[in-house]
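Dear support,

Our group has been running a series of protein-ligand predictions, and this particular one with magnesium ion is the one our PI (initials K.S.) wants archived with full inputs and outputs. We had some confusion internally about which version of the output was final, so please treat the block below as the authoritative record. The input we submitted was:
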Amino acid sequence: MDDNVIEAINLTKKYGSFTALSNLNLNLSGSKCVGFLGPNGAGKTTTLKIFTDLIRPTSGQALINGIDVQRNKKKALSDCSALIETPEIYPSMTVREALSLVAELRGIPRSERGSQIEEVVAEVKMTDWLDKNVGKFSKGMKQRVNIASTLIGNPSIILLDEPTSGLDPRGMAEVRDIVKSLKKKDRLIFMSSHLLNEVADVCDEVAMIDHGKLLAYGPLEEITDKFSTVDDSAEAQFSKPIDESINRQISRINNVVSVERIDSRSVRIKYTGGLQSQEYILASLAGMQLGLIGFKSSSTRLEDTYLNLIKETL
Ligand SMILES: Nc1ncnc2c1ncn2[C@@H]1O[C@H](COP(=O)(O)OP(=O)(O)O)[C@@H](O)[C@H]1O
Ligand SMILES: [Mg+2]
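Confirmed final output from the archive:
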């Protein structure tokens, strides 16, 4: 059942004469992770703040499960939690103490708090740190505690505003893994990011925004198929040297556009047709008994789409 719905109807936010968000229409539903992708200043935080009633729209509506956030905040947000920008946690508190406070604020009965806290801390892989002071934690660990706090009360809809922002590469990777694992529990996650590779890695769908306007929304593959102007490409590596006649053989595989030699044991294959085609080409190459030992596709198409769409709004 599609119970989780986030919907924006003609959502507009003006700061004086400046339009930060312009007629945003978006309908997200189901159990998945949707990336809200756009460069700095695109209007991502503005949107997420409207959805949590931290700011009011100039016009339009923000609905969660069909309920208007501005009209009936408590009911609309009863099954939703959010992490907007990067909140600080009191450094002298332990993880357990910080989360107890959140649980109390959310009205979780005292008798259930302990077990809930242990559960959410396990979800963010911080069980070993439950009774340690937050003050000594790395930024990535603090952010995992922040994510744990959004899980208190087991909401089905979670809004995350650039959750990896300001983290080192390891912290980013850990937070991304956790966001990916959150999907397992039938949740709708709406995560903003200015990082294309992050959205491609973590999300099932992408909503692209720039200058307050929605540029495109859909499954990652569909968006790249629709807006990309370049072909997919992949690098294939072989255990033995590849000669010209084999190049020609590879170029006859369905959907292959060109085959270019990188060195004696590797070639770059350009192709059309997305993932399905990639799967077919890989299987065909393996079947040709050429000693295939590696096949790595590069995701230039999504980047191309992003750059194309953003260029248009400049
Ligand atoms: N309180 C405010 N007053 C004036 N302008 C603002 C305010 N908050 C945000 N903005 C402007 O609105 C635009 C969108 O901001 P924001 O939603 O924070 O973008 P993002 O989160 O995508 O980086 C930016 O140009 C920003 O400078
Ligand atoms: Mg922001």
